């Protein structure tokens, strides 16, 4: 491959929408607004009920979208720490102002606005994630506008990314901060500059605050860009020690102030109800047995290892879930929750789905080979390796690994971008573009064909 000529990347406010991004931003905004409108329509009458209600039962019993959580709905509806703080230390604090506003509006109108607030946040996060991934292709990977747009659409046609863009879970925010980190790190690499300590500090604080494991990826980004300088005392202190210390302080305050006192109250109430209500006791035992049947052999005891699994089949998990359901939904048990009714492994009913999966994997592997000497691609592969270690080797969340695609799926189009930018015979370039374009179109149509009717059924039924 000949030496590439990268564009002159200008510094400035990364949230400012550039002239060449306006149409993309508008299109992305409308697209994600439409998807979030589907989420608003889903159980609309039920989820907008306000007042002194049991919001846990209301949302948990009537929300099922592929295993994604709806804890943000609950938090905005009634203040309580529903999130597992050791994994998501910043999320309750982030939602607290929205709870206060929603509490005031609920008192005035009797309507719960939680679904509207979450949709608003999702649309903003989704639109900027789209802008950042486009910039990665256009500026960091030096693609033409057409190729950058093509790969951006290809990325957002993946099932897990489509779902992430509108469900009330934390993944939309993870995707925002991870694509932002990739863009900041990639820009620094292409300009042959270092990431500054304040950049590492902010990215570490927000990315890890949303999902603690993201700290590994911000750390790797800093290491690939800054090399040994990443461990310079001042840089390391400001970039990583301080944000982690701040997150730990936030975690400890919430744990002692809200979680521990509430846990004692809830445990006492549950024990009383188990003794007095035989129907509740029978239902609780049945649900407990079902959940236990989903738990594999743990790596070790302790809350940090409670979702690990050494006994589930890795082959099935990789074929049907990691590179399967993450990219193209299964026709059977559509969007069911593995912790409620979905079997751990669901297989496609048509060999065409496996052919599509194989084709995408071949493009991915060819892209990795093409970009193997590119330091930015190497960094992305290091990120991907952390997810493989976490989800496949340790088995963290392996039975529903497909909902976590926002943490790693961008590596596929980034690798393919290396194929596109190669100085190769024109017919191969046309073939690559044509294949990616066709797959983007088919995946988008296929996944939306499953998603849209499912989301509207909840609205029509009520």
What does this structure look like?
By secondary structure, the chain is an all-alpha fold. It has helices at residues 22-41, 44-47, 55-62, 71-77, 91-109, 114-140, 145-156, 159-164, 171-190, 197-210, 214-226, 233-276, 278-294, 314-325, 351-370, 375-393, 411-420, 426-461. It is globular. The model has no long low-confidence stretch (mean pLDDT 91).
Chain-wise SSE layout:
Blueprint: H1 22-41, H2 44-47, H3 55-62, H4 71-77, H5 91-109, H6 114-140, H7 145-156, H8 159-164, H9 171-190, H10 197-210, H11 214-226, H12 233-276, H13 278-294, H14 314-325, H15 351-370, H16 375-393, H17 411-420, H18 426-461
Helix pairs in contact: 1-6, 4-5, 4-6, 6-7, 6-9, 7-17, 7-18, 9-10, 9-11, 10-11, 10-12, 11-16, 12-13, 15-17
**Distance between termini?**
59 Å
The helix/strand order is: HHHHHHHHHHHHHHHHHH
Largest sheet: none
Poorly predicted spans? none
Question: How many beta-strand segments?
Answer: 0
Helix proportion range: 55-70%
How would you describe the oligomerization state of the chains in this entry? single chain
What radius of gyration results from the CA coordinates? 23 Å
Give the strand content. under 5%
């Amino acid at each position: 491959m000949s030496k590439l000529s990268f564009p002159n990347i200008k510094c400035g406010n990364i949230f400012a929408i550039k002239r060449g991004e306006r149409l993309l931003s508008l299109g992305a905004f409308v697209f994600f607004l439409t998807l979030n409108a589907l989420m608003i329509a889903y159980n609309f009458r039920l989820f907008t009920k306000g007042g002194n209600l049991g919001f846990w039962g209301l949302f948990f019993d009537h929300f099922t979208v592929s295993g994604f959580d709806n804890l943000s709905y609950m938090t905005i509806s009634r203040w309580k720490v529903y999130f597992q703080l050791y994994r998501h230390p910043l999320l309750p604090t982030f939602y607290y102002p929205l709870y206060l506003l929603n509490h005031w509006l609920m008192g005035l109108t009797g309507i719960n606005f939680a679904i509207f607030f979450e949709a608003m946040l999702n649309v903003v996060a989704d639109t900027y994630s789209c802008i950042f991934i486009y910039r990665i292709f256009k500026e960091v990977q030096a693609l033409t506008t057409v190729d950058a747009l093509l790969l951006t659409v290809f990325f957002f046609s993946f099932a897990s990314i489509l779902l992430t863009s509108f469900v009330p879970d934390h993944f939309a925010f993870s995707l925002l901060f991870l694509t932002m980190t990739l863009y900041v790190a990639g820009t620094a690499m292409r300009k042959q500059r270092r990431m500054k300590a304040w950049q590492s500090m902010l990215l570490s604080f927000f990315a890890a605050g949303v999902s603690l494991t993201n700290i590994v990826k911000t750390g790797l980004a800093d290491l690939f860009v800054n090399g040994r300088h990443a461990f310079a005392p001042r840089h390391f202190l400001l970039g990583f020690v301080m944000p982690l210390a701040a997150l730990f302080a936030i975690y400890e305050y919430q744990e002692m102030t809200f979680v521990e006192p509430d846990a004692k109250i809830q445990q006492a109430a549950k024990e009383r109800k188990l003794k007095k209500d035989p129907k509740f006791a029978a239902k609780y035992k049945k649900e407990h047995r079902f959940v236990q049947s989903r738990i594999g052999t743990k790596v070790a005891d302790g809350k940090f290892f409670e979702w690990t699994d050494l006994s589930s089949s890795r082959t099935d998990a990789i074929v049907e879930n990691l590179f399967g359901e993450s990219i193209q939904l299964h026709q059977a048990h559509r969007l069911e929750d593995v912790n409620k009714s979905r079997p751990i492994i669901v297989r496609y009913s048509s060999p065409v789905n496996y052919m599509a999966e194989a084709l995408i994997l071949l493009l991915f592997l060819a892209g990795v080979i093409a970009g193997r000497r590119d330091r930015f691609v190497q960094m992305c592969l290091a990120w991907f390796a952390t997810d493989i270690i976490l989800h496949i080797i340790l088995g963290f969340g392996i039975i529903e690994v497909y909902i976590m695609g926002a943490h790693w799926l961008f590596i596929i189009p980034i690798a393919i971008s290396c194929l596109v930018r190669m100085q190769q015979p024109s017919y191969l370039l046309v073939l690559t573009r044509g294949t990616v374009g066709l797959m983007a179109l088919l995946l988008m149509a296929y996944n939306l064909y499953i998603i849209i009717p499912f989301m509207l059924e909840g609205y029509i039924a009520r």
